[in-house]
């Protein structure tokens, strides 16, 4: 396959290009420095991994409209999203939590219903499959925290303060608790665009 990927971070783009060169894949992977709203062209498949949390509730319609425009008829899309349960979503949107304030400023989680609604309002995308990975993410965060705490000397050598260490420890442990208690979820959602049909044909 050939891959086109994008980021708005110059540092991330530079690191990606370095790794692509090291892997000998410069002829197969293109890295753009572009906002998703400015992309053009069409693709067979799209993948968005935990990026939708940075889109914001006011731009969900724009996001799904743009994804549909970039996906060829018959194409498929995978979204991995950190979610809020549907019954808590409206209340979540009215508040600012620790993660939004101190870890990922401006972030906004989505609910499955919010994603489905935005896709239905703005595109012909259809949901093909949803996989709940929430329990696995609780375990992942537990492992991340254990590894972080086991290498605090390295963290300090990198120049991070004790305040940062406490904040990051709290972030990892509170996130683990959120996934374990299912107040936060992780879902992989597969969507597709219908294939084009000609008049009188049956698909």
Q: Layout of helices and strands, plus pairs?
A:
Layout lengths: L2 E5 L2 H13 L6 E5 L9 E7 L10 H11 E13 L5 H4 L5 H6 L8 H11 L3 E7 L1 H17 L1 H6 L4 H19 L4 E8 L11
Parallel strand pairs: 1-2, 3-4
Antiparallel strand pairs: 4-6, 5-6
Summarize the model shown:
This protein is of the alpha/beta class. The chain is built from 8 helices and 6 strands. Helix 2 (60-70) crosses helix 5 (112-122).
Note the run of SSEs as H and E.
EHEEHEHHHEHHHE
| Weakly predicted, low-confidence segments | none
State the share of residues found in helices, binned by percent: 40-55%
**What is the subunit organization of this protein?**
single chain
E-strand count: 6
Please outline the major beta sheet. Answer: 4 strands, mixed
The structure class reads alpha/beta
Beta content:
15-25%
Describe the structure.
By secondary structure, the protein is an alpha/beta fold. Helix content is 43%, strand content 22%. It is built from eight helices and six strands. A four-stranded mixed beta sheet has the order 3-4-6-5. Strand 1, helix 1 and strand 2 form a beta-alpha-beta unit. The protein is globular. It starts with a strand and ends in an 11-residue tail after the last strand.
Give me some keywords for this one.
203 residues, alpha/beta, four-stranded mixed beta sheet, 6 strands
